[in-house]
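Quick one:
INPUT:
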């Protein structure tokens, strides 16, 4: 059966933080830290924390600002983490709420209602609890029958979730699948870490996949094929998890939050992603110049420039490979989906596009699509 990507939804948080605001808070924290640990720093036992810089952040990453689910607390030198109120077991969870917001928009764009959906997949970098699945909570909130489950694949959670939707529809297990990426990542950001405090933002995206015979959407794309690869690496890591309760480790230690060897990631992932895309296109007798649009993972502008240059032999322009990380920052797996959501309605019948994620794991996932 032909599988079609027939709708997408983007929910953007209400609050944003500019580089200047974020850097200012970090620098205040660094001054406080250096003052507080003056004796140890003077004795050479620990290093002083150098200042962060908004110019560095924009130049090194391309990020100008980020949206956050909860701004309160992040810029508070005495807290340096969001202050998200606890919700009771009978209330809709924070992550389910943003998932529902994106899902509702995706269903509307595909001209579908809850009763059309057979499967809900929530796929993202973190779920706020292990069970009951966020996807099942979302399924209940939207009034969807069938079944639902959560998936975690870090940066490639969105594309890998789409792959599962593709396979279920192709196999006839389902007709319509809703894939949601509620990337509520700010609670895992170490805002006290100069190397990574600027990288991430919150967002939620969703996509609708269905069998070709039920499509009722103007902006629909045939999924020609999917491709995935993983290769183990410790260069992007978070050790947060349920085992912390059984060990004597500090649950708030820096290794429990996002940390990475950014340079190594850059060097190792760019060639992997370029090779992956080339192989995916070659399987369809296509070359990079045949693509009308590249919806690439949004981690770092220099990575995207390098990957498209490697493939095209020249810089891709913003129309070919749209950049959204200047506004949204790195939103874990949702970056390529935001780019798709904002930049697909101008495409013509027959135009090819590729969605491709790359990052933690390492994991790379792509979908080759063609405008119907
Ligand atoms: N301000 C000023 N100077 C700084 C700062 C700062 N904030 N940070 C570092 N510097 C300094 C360093 O100290 C260094 O100085 P020196 O040369 O004197 O030693 C200099 O700037 C250069 O530092 P780096 O080599 O670290 O800087 P880079 O040019 O490599 O840029 C980046 C850093 C932006 C992190 C870059 O390496 C990068 O983006 N790499 C790719 C990273 C990537 O793609 N990671 C994937 C992220 S994971 C993901 O997408 C999803 C994961 C799951 C979600 C997690 C949610 C929390």
């Amino acid at each position: 059966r032909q599988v079609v990507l027939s709708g997408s939804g983007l929910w953007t948080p209400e609050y944003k933080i500019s580089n200047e605001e974020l850097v200012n808070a970090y620098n205040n924290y660094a001054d406080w830290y250096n003052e507080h640990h003056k004796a140890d720093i003077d004795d050479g036992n620990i290093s002083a924390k150098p200042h962060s810089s908004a110019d560095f952040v924009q130049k090194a990453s391309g990020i100008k600002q980020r949206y956050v689910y909860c701004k309160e607390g992040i810029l508070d030198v005495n807290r340096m983490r969001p202050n998200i109120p606890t919700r009771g077991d009978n209330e809709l969870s924070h992550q389910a709420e943003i998932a529902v917001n994106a899902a509702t928009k995706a269903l509307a764009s595909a001209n579908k209602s809850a009763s059309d959906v057979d499967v809900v997949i929530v796929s993202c970098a973190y779920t706020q609890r292990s069970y009951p699945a966020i996807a099942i909570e979302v399924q209940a909130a939207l009034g969807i029958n069938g079944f639902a489950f959560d998936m975690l694949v870090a940066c490639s959670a969105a594309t890998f979730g789409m792959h599962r939707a593709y396979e279920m529809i192709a196999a006839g297990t389902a007709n319509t699948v809703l894939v949601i990426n509620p990337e509520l990542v700010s609670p895992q950001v170490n805002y006290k870490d100069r190397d990574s405090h600027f990288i991430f933002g919150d967002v939620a995206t969703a996509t609708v996949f269905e069998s070709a015979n039920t499509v009722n959407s103007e902006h629909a794309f045939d999924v020609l094929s999917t491709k995935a690869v993983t290769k183990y690496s410790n260069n992007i890591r978070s050790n947060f998890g349920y085992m912390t309760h059984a060990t004597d480790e500090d649950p708030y230690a820096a290794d429990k939050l996002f940390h990475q060897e950014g340079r190594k990631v850059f060097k190792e992932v760019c060639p992997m992603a370029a090779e992956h895309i080339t192989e995916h296109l070659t399987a369809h007798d296509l070359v990079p110049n045949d693509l009308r649009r590249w919806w690439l993972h949004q981690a770092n502008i220099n990575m995207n420039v390098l990957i498209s240059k490697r493939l095209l032999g020249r810089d891709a322009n913003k129309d070919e490979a749209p950049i959204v990380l200047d506004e949204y920052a790195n939103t874990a797996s949702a970056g390529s989906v935001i780019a798709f959501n904002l930049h697909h309605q101008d495409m013509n019948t027959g135009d090819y596009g590729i969605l491709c994620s790359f990052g933690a794991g390492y994991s790379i996932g792509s979908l080759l699509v063609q405008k119907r």
